[in-house]
Write a structure and sequence with these properties.
The chain has helices at about 35-55, 60-70, 80-90, 100-105, 125-145, 170-180, 185-195, 200-205, 235-245, 265-275, 285-295, 300-310, 315, 330, 350; strands spanning about 5, 10-15, 25, 210, 215-220, 230-235, 255, 260. With about 350 residues, the chain is mainly alpha-helical. The protein has three domains: about 5-55, no CATH class; about 60-145; about 170-325, Orthogonal Bundle (hpI Integrase, Chain A), CATH 1.10.443.10. The strands form three sheets. Strands 1-2-3 form a three-stranded antiparallel β-sheet, with helices on one face. Strands 4-5-6 form a three-stranded antiparallel β-sheet. A two-stranded antiparallel sheet has the order 7-8. This is Site-specific integrase.
Length: about 350
C-alpha cells in the first residue's frame, strides 16, 4: 500500500517505487486521508516527469532548509540562521522552492521582534535584511551549487536609514554596569566594554582562547564574523574580569549557575538599561561604545579595524567623525578674515561698524 501510518502516528506517509526504481518514503505532513492521497499522486506525477522528461525534481523548502543548515553548521551566526529559517519554514512549509517568488518572500518578512517578550518591538529594516540574507544565501546555493532550481529570485536589501552610531560615555557605562544585578551579566558586559568583542564571542569564550600571563585572547576564524582570526589584547579591567571566573568551569570562561551560557538574557538587560536611565541601548552598542572610546582617545582607524576584526575599512569609518583632531591644521585655511601677505590683517566686521 502506497499510503500508510507509522508508529501509531496520525500523519500519513507515502511509500512507493519511483520510475527509476528507487524507493520513496516520506511524510505527507497531513492527517487527512484525501489530502495525503493528493500529495501522493502529485509526487508520483512529478517523479515520472523527472524520469521520463528529464525535468529537475521538485525540492521542498524543508529539504533545502535542512541541507543549508547542515552546510552552515559551526558558523558564528548559525543560531541566527536557524531562527530565520524557522520563520520562513512556517510560511513556506511543503512548497517547491522553485515556485517561491520574490514578492512572497518580502511579504513573509517578520514585523515584530519575537525575542523581546516584555514588549512588542517592531523589527528594524536592518534586522529584516538579515532574514533576507539567510534565505537569499539558501536559494542561491540551491541554484548555483546544488542544481535544484534554474535560478534564484533577486532579493536586494531593504533601504535603511543611516542612523548615528549609538555609544555612551564612560560615566553612563559605569551607571549601566552598576544597574546590572546579575554578576555573570555584569562581567560579560564589562569585558565587552574592555575588548569590543561581539556577544557570541563573549558568551562562548573558552579558557583555551585566553592567556592571562601574556594578557591576550583570540577568536578563531570560524568564530569570527569576517572569517578571520582576531587577536585580542587584554587591559587590566579585562584581565580582572577573566580572573574572577577561574575555577567556575573547566571549558568555558563565563557561566550561569555553574553551566555554560546558551543565550543572552535580553529582558534582564533591558531592565538594567532602564534603571541606568539610558534609551535604546542594545548589547551590540557596547561594541560601538568601545570603538568610539578608542577613536576619541586617538587610536588610528587602521589599528581599530584590526582590533575589532572588521573586514572592510568602511566599517570603521563610521567612527571617524568622533575624532576630527587630525583636521585641525586645515581649519584655518578657510577663515573669512584672513591675514594679508604683508602681515596686516583685514578689517573685521566689528571694526567696520565701530
Amino acid at each position: 500500500m502506497s499510503l500508510k501510518k507509522r508508529n501509531d502516528s496520525d500523519v500519513w506517509h507515502v511509500d512507493f517505487r519511483a520510475p527509476g526504481g528507487e524507493r520513496v518514503r516520506r511524510s505527507t505532513g497531513t492527517t487527512n486521508r484525501k489530502e495525503a492521497q493528493e500529495y501522493h499522486d502529485k509526487l508520483k506525477h512529478d517523479l515520472w516527469r523527472v524520469a521520463k522528461l528529464g525535468e529537475k525534481p521538485k525540492r521542498t523548502f524543508e529539504e533545502a532548509a535542512l541541507r543549508f543548515l547542515k552546510e552552515k553548521a559551526g558558523q558564528p551566526d548559525y543560531g541566527n540562521k536557524v531562527l530565520h529559517i524557522k520563520h520562513f519554514k512556517a510560511k513556506f512549509r511543503g512548497r517547491d522552492i522553485g515556485s517561491i517568488t520574490r514578492d512572497e518572500i518580502y511579504e513573509a518578512l517578520p514585523e515584530v521582534n519575537r525575542r523581546i517578550k516584555s514588549a512588542v518591538a517592531p523589527l528594524t529594516r536592518s534586522t529584516k535584511n538579515l532574514y533576507l540574507s539567510t534565505v537569499r544565501a539558501m536559494l542561491n546555493m540551491a541554484a548555483d551549487e546544488w542544481g535544484w532550481i534554474e535560478s534564484a529570485p533577486k532579493l536586494p536589501n531593504l533601504a535603511t536609514d543611516n542612523k548615528r552610531v549609538r555609544w555612551i560615555t564612560k560615566e553612563e557605562a559605569q551607571r549601566l554596569l552598576q544597574a546590572i544585578h546579575s554578576g555573570w551579566m555584569r562581567d560579560v558586559a564589562t569585558l565587552g566594554f574592555a575588548t569590543g568583542l561581539r556577544q557570541s564571542n563573549l558568551l562562548h569564550l573558552e579558557w583555551s582562547q585566553v592567556d592571562l600571563v601574556k594578557r591576550r585572547a583570540w577568536i578563531h576564524a570560524d568564530q569570527a564574523k569576517a572569517g578571520k582570526s582576531i587577536g585580542v589584547p587584554l587591559n587590566e579591567e579585562a584581565v580582572e574580569v577573566i580572573r574572577r571566573q577561574l575555577g567556575k568551569h573547566q571549558t568555558y570562561v563565563f557561566t550561569r549557575k555553574g553551566k555554560p551560557l546558551k543565550k543572552w538574557d535580553i529582558g534582564q538587560w533591558n531592565r538594567a538599561v532602564a534603571r541606568a536611565e539610558l534609551e535604546h541601548f542594545r548589547f551590540h552598542d557596547v561594541r560601538h561604545t568601545w570603538a568610539s572610546w578608542h577613536v576619541q582617545s586617538g587610536t588610528p582607524l587602521n589599528r581599530l579595524m584590526e582590533l575589532g576584526g572588521w573586514s572592510k575599512y568602511e566599517m570603521v569609518l563610521r567612527y571617524a567623525h568622533l575624532a576630527p583632531d587630525h583636521l585641525a591644521q586645515h581649519a584655518d585655511t578657510v577663515t573669512i578674515w584672513a591675514q594679508s601677505p604683508n602681515g596686516a590683517g583685514e578689517e573685521s566686521p566689528q571694526s567696520l561698524v565701530a
